[in-house]
Amino acid sequence: MSRLTICIVDYGVGNTHSVANALSFLDYKVKISQHSDIVRSADILILPGVGAFEVAISNLKSSGLQELLHELVIEKQKPILGICVGMQMMATYSEENGHHSGLNWIPGAVVKLDEKFGFPVPHVGWNTISPVIHEPLFTTAHNESHFYFDHSFYFKPDAQHHVAATVNYGPSITAAVQHENICGVQFHPEKSQTNGLKLFRSFVNGIQQYA
Amino acid sequence: MLKKRIIAVLPVYNGIVVQSIGFHKYLPVGKAEIAIEFLNAWGIDEIVVADITARKNQRVIQPGFIKQISKKCLVPLTVGGGITRLEDVHELIHSGADKVCVNNPVLTNPGLISEIARNYGDQCVVASIDIIRENNSLYVWDYTTKTRSTQSVAQVLQTAIQAGAGELLINSVHNDGKYTGYDTELFTEVCNQVTVPVLACGGARNAESMIQLLNATEVSAACAGNFFHFFEHSVTITKKEIAKHSDAIRIETAANYKQNEVDAYGRLIKKDDAVLEHLLYLKIEKEII
Amino acid sequence: MIYCKRCLYTDAHPLFLVLDDEGICSGCRVHEEKNTLDWSKRFEKLKSIVASYKNQSGTNYDCIVPVCGARDSYFIVHMVKYVLGLNPLLVTYNKHYNTAVGYRNLSNLKIKLDCDIMSLTVNPEKIKKITRATLRRFGSIYWHCIAGQTVYPVQMAVKLKIPLIIWGAHQGIDQVGMYSHLDEVEMTRKYRKEHDLMGYEAEDLINEEFDNITEDTVRPFIYPDDQEIENVGVRGIYLNNYIRWDSRSQHEAMILQYGYETAPQTRTFDTYNDVDCWNYSDVHDYIKLIKHGYGKVLDHATREIRLGHMTKEKGVELVNNYTQKKPENISLFTKWLGITENSFFYIVDQFRNSKFWERDKEFNWQLKQLPYGKESDSNWQVPESDYTDFTITAQGKSSDDADGYILIGKGSI
Fold first, then answer.
1. Band of the pLDDT at B89, cuts 50, 70, 90?
2. Which stretches of chain B are assigned E, i.e. beta strand?
3. Fewer CB atoms near the end CB (10 Å): N or C, chain B?
4. HSE of C375 in the Cβ direction (CA atoms, 13 Å)?
5. Residue B179 domain-assigned (yes or no)
6. Do B123 and A124 touch (CB under 8 A)?
7. pLDDT-based confidence at C401, cuts 50/70/90?
8. Mean pLDDT within B220-248
9. What CATH architecture applies to the domain C39-262?
10. Domain range for residue B91?
11. Active site includes B272?
């Protein structure tokens, strides 16, 4: 059994326990922390997210985690998976409640779902995704795989080749992104039952080649 | 395609999941963590845990309780019961809850909803509104006083939306535990007035109730509390039945009951003897000399 | 503790109880249905369900009926075979703690009611290993019995492709009103795990270091996979949702009709329900008292009070009398299990519930309060007839040794 350590970065605005439950189910060694030693020594990082962008990014900055993550993820290429707002923070900026700068790890903007298409906002519930880049997130998923979405804003990467999966909600919008050791998903794998568990497994197994 | 959700509501009374009948009679079912474990295994889309004795006992649903029961919950878990402060929400989200549900604050302190939405996003807040039909008119029901609210249904719906609620959980009080089917007109009324997802609860008897609800209204989810506890693989069988009438249902369990039929009550019908025999042994034709 | 005004239960019941504004418990409220429902209509519903399960091709049984040498088995088989006209396959799990009476009853059942029966006897060394572990971990000597009784019928249904299993009474409905009879609740793995097995399924017992229990040890108790159950379309129904259940009357009818044998029990007045077991109304009931503050006699009295066969005062008298009776079969049990009596008491004491017990001045354990309430329900009609003792039938003769556990007996024929 794999004894990798996965650290769920706790920056005060995330459903950390839910993510931990799912990873524990898969028998991984999991820690929820914001302490630099623990974050540093983990093999894989998860950046969870349930919340508003503004509060999330400000918490990340004020806790000192922004610098630490930059060092570990950008300089040292540690594998990281961002979930929902955790993924959105990887963008250049977000339009939620104003204009707020993100981490700019994957250039692009976070914009509001357009109600003009007649699809209610927020986008809540189970929807099927279309994988574009199969490794490392979607080795076991396919076009009929459902994942749980719950968001009002979505990520528009500047470069198409960063889009790892799309979902149909009016137009086709980004469901997942990837850039080398950095992955992000708009949906919640920790809340997507078996498909979510499979995604975590696929990610952990596949991401290390990029590290 | 976004699917309609089938949601289990677990009312918790003094720490135990109960069946709710008319909002005043309760039958004990058992521990929340067991209910959650099996609802998950049966393919439920989402679970709502509502502590209905919290406000009466002047406390909030306990984070420790949520931590304990959420271990095997791999679908979104919405929790509610006596939430009055932002701090309550912070602890709950850090204990395994994914969304929070507020009922009384919709009527008495909608500012709390805005606060939660600002900090956790509107998708994290579900406004629960109890509606009662009396003399063929709809009224908002205040469960703390057990009377009709002075605010109208339209007012309360708009208050909840303006305050930033991401979804509305609408309970039809007069149908609770009656097994007469959903009050589809009530939910049509509500859907006409809002654009956020509406989760309908109250009166579900079996798959047929849900089929009627999803055909007649634009709700995003059909919720049930009681009947999911009544028979084996209840959620799986119910979903498979609904899927016959709609392709907006998610079926992803290994056991999917596609080869089984149900009766008028939503319970399994025996497979043909020939089918069962075929499963039992290989028929070997005897050579006739 | 909050007491029910009508019966003897409190809100500390292990299956959970809800008391309403009038001080009446959910069990009593659901029990009221016994006097308000149209039972002939309920029976018609039962007939229509089972009719659809009859095997038409003549190549298989119509249903599976789990039985043992007690517990309404005769009544259930009689109903299924002679009243509903079905062709049942009986299945029984060997609980090991078998009495001679129990084995005679089981033999008699097969013969007098003319049914085929499949039986599972797990090897005694495995059972002892498992029971040592369940006793140590959660203070139960009965886990293997309940696990076996509830899984074996499902395994047989799946293996033999007989989807319908017919059970007698659903304990949750019967005791605490967990469901209305109209809910027509069916068997679920969920209920089994939580309420029958105290949260522990077979796989949860695997523990190689301490208990020497491997997957092989618990294999007989492993529940069939969801897909196997789906494949066959297994359904377990309860007769008490369709028949007005009255265990005493039912047993007495079976005594008359088939010669069902009864025997005195150590810790209860009900001489019918558990005659097949050395431990149920003895060692196991002693443990129940330690853990839950009351014994089975209280369940039996509550049942009779609700049915109107007994006043609350009589129930209290019987509970007071029998709750204090010392168990007589502990040494038989400890010898069988391979532990000393001292270690048995030591282990069981770890599970003594301080909610119900405290030490007195002489450092002896005493119940903190009465396990039942003294108030009465003014709306409840007191039964006119006096309570009469349960029958003790003449003892039959079997060719097996009557002074120890009987593993496989011949019965009287």
1. very high
2. 5-13, 16-21, 25-30, 46-51, 77-80, 99-102, 125-134, 137-142, 147-148, 167-172, 198-201, 221-224
3. C
4. 12
5. yes
6. yes
7. low
8. 96
9. 3-Layer(aba) Sandwich (3.40)
10. 5-260
11. no
